[in-house]
Amino acid sequence: MSTVRTRPAGSAASSSGSSGRNPLAAVLRARELGIVVALAILVAYTTIANPRFLSAQSVRDILLGASILAVLAVGQTIVIVTRNIDLSVGSVLGLTAFAVGTVVQDNPGLPLPFALLLGMAIGGVCGMVNAVLVRYGQVPALVVTLGTLYMFRGVTYLWAGGQQITADELPRSFLSFANETLLGVPWLVLIALLVTVAAGVLLRNYRVGRELYAMGSNPEAAMLAGISVGRNLLGAFTVSGALAGLAGVLFAIRFGTIDAAAGTGDELEVVAAAVVGGVAVFGGSGTVWGAALGALLLTVIGNSLAVLDINQFWQNAIVGALILFAIGVDRLVAARTARALKKRNSHVR
Amino acid sequence: MTRQDATPLLEVRDVAKSFSAVAAVRGCSFPLYPGEVHALVGENGAGKSTIVKMLAGVHQPDTGTLLVSGEEAAFAGPADAKAAGIAVIYQEPTLFPDLSVAENIAMGRQPRGRFGAIDRGRVRREAAELFSRLGVRIDPERPARGLSIADQQIVEIAKAIGGSASVLIMDEPTAALSAVEVERLFAVVRTLRDEGAAVLFISHRFEEITELCERVTIMRDGAHVSTDLVRDLTVDEMVRRMVGRDLDALFPKQDVEPGAVVLEVEDLSREGVFRDVSFTVRAGEIVALAGLVGSGRSEVVQAVFGVDGRDSGAVRVNGKRVRPGDPRSAMAAGMALVPEDRRQQGLVMDLSIQRNVTLPRAGALARLGLLGGGGERREAGRWTERLRTRYGRLTDPVGTLSGGNQQKVVLAKWLSTSPRVLIVDEPTRGIDVGTKAEVHRLMSTLAAEGVAVLMVSSELPEVLGMADRVLVMREGRIAADIPRPRATEESIMFAAMGQEANT
Lengths: 349, 503
Prior knowledge:
The complex is a heterodimer.
Chain A: H1 2-5, H2 9-12, H3 23-49, H4 56-80, H5 89-106, H6 112-137, H7 141-160, H8 172-176, E1 181-182, E2 185-186, H9 187-205, H10 207-217, H11 219-224, H12 229-255, H13 266-276, H14 288-307, H15 312-344
Antiparallel strand pairs in A: 1-2
Helix pairs in contact in A: 3-14, 4-9, 4-12, 4-13, 4-14, 5-6, 5-7, 5-12, 6-7, 6-12, 9-10, 10-12, 13-14, 14-15
Chain B: E1 10-19, E2 22-32, E3 37-41, H1 48-55, E4 63-68, E5 71-73, H2 78-83, E6 86-89, H3 101-106, H4 120-134, H5 149-162, E7 167-171, H6 179-194, E8 198-202, H7 206-212, E9 215-220, E10 223-229, H8 235-243, E11 261-270, E12 274-282, E13 286-291, H9 297-305, E14 312-317, E15 320-321, H10 327-332, E16 335-338, H11 342-346, H12 353-358, H13 362-365, H14 373-386, H15 403-415, E17 421-425, H16 433-448, E18 452-456, H17 460-466, E19 469-474, E20 477-483, H18 489-497
Parallel strand pairs in B: 3-8, 3-9, 6-7, 7-8, 13-18, 13-19, 16-17, 17-18
Antiparallel strand pairs in B: 1-2, 1-4, 4-5, 9-10, 11-12, 11-14, 14-15, 19-20
Helix pairs in contact in B: 4-5, 5-6, 14-15
């Protein structure tokens, strides 16, 4: 075997070294940049066609809509990076919006932070139900949350029984929160930002966050590495549920009118926002920043098409095309990265 | 070097483990001392993996105890085993492809700074330090995706020593490595041993055990057979204890007078992969394709079979040209390819054994386009019996079989097509001596029946034992064509490394 060591060292050592930065991080940054560029182009084009698009009212509308969607998308991202999915968020939003709306209706003096916390608590319990079914039922999250999607919605219909809560039944202080601002920024936007930043830091800089990525990247290895898979799963679904609950309260505040159908179909828009934002549906990669930007992009598209007076049909088609485009870009980049990484491997030979 | 007087770092004492009434391990005991590399050998299914999983905390022993530094220990899960200083390097790497190499190493014990947040700079620096200590160059910032198997194992080792593990358990770490990579791995393992770690080393390759290990524990059918110093045992004795009987011969090669040329490969080239590859294989001949991993051996046979395309050159079977990039045409011409990676390329893991065996002949066995049970079952039964495959029922998913038996199913699958040219890529990788000998005997029998056999193998003893002729590849070309009488370990390695006998 001593012959092995006499190989010329030159052929063995390619200059891989520390020359390259993490290409994956570069890709993700490129993805977020791409969304920002797409946003800028879209806003510029729409504004030229119809300057009213950048009016205060229109901007506020977009931002409030995007805030609610972003809160949902952040929660969804936390679940998706673990290679799971939470399809029940639209129903959780509807359930909490109606529940909190009813409570506020009956207790007009209830402080707003308490209403927000109540919504998160209800949503959190829904999330825990999902987590327990996924973990102990050994059923894929797709199936479990599809089931709870109908279940939570059913509970809401049963409770509401066709009645709806209208804006004049809700206390003024509750509804006016939608218009209140801090330094000119609506509170709803600040809440969405706070949620995104907190989740982003947690996922990037804390052990539990990295463990969530690890679980999605290689579930078996995560188990063997001694990661508390069950506890983390419970946490992820609970957070996703709690954020859906928060979004439900924000929904009630923004629209004032709540019926049992609130948030129907939102789950798909949320998943679309995450995917467009670069969150891989097979887990292990993607950021909440991307997901939040994806939410903003989808909201802007919806609003700009309305402003441009384009048929609703086109909005759906464009969102669909965008998702396919995003996935296509991901595949392309993944293939390129894989090839680049293989080349950098060559120092073994 | 072994400090036998010291307390064992880890001791397995009379453990037993059963899975639904099947005893996987019974009454197994052995100690691991600091500063020793301890081999654990046995046929597939002898219970080695179960022992590994108990030490890793994945399974809990039914009876018996594990002692860590003399103290009884019970592992409720992998986290407990890790905390006790036991690191396991599995046969299948357990890295997180989406995370950076540095993060993979630090997972679960990331250094924390302000507000309990991970100190990312230190994670990176620590990984870089570990790599320089191991003497390898891997960028800590790159994602683990795309690392070669050898590098993945180095990262696993870095993970282990980064977590200051005192016991390192390696489950067939060399199965997918080339000779150079094995040597690098061994250098690392020796360093760890000299620093006082205990290493449990599982391998099917005896030359590695004699080279690296001080003591060897032999298991058979879940039971402990013996624990001895390696230098007190001959390889024959180890084999006898493993299989519980004498193997007639490890390489039962029959002498066959080669017949007419069956497979002809002429000037085969593919840009950047291999160039001007020409050779012939006669009926009854076993030709080995040797060389380092990455020298293009597998790529050549895949191009010959048509799985991959080729830029130029011709492949003929019995003088008839085979269309490039068309495995169906190769199969029609009488070629069969047993691929290197049986899990990915050779088998459909979720399908039944019989469906897997009859897959290439599904058309011929079907009646009115439907696959009924009868013909399929008879055909599969015939071939699995001939190969002495051990299985529960023919309808069990093939994924439930042990590695050796899976390989037999792949072989059965292709042999049922009665090939004239049989191409086997690493036919005995990761399978135990008993099954190995059976696969070798089978290849030899096939050759005697007039089949032309082309074998890619990284195991020199197998190449020397089985081949009538050895083609050595280096950097995409055939560097040497060595007939059996002149083939030695040295002549093949020299040709493979590009150094003539002047070193």
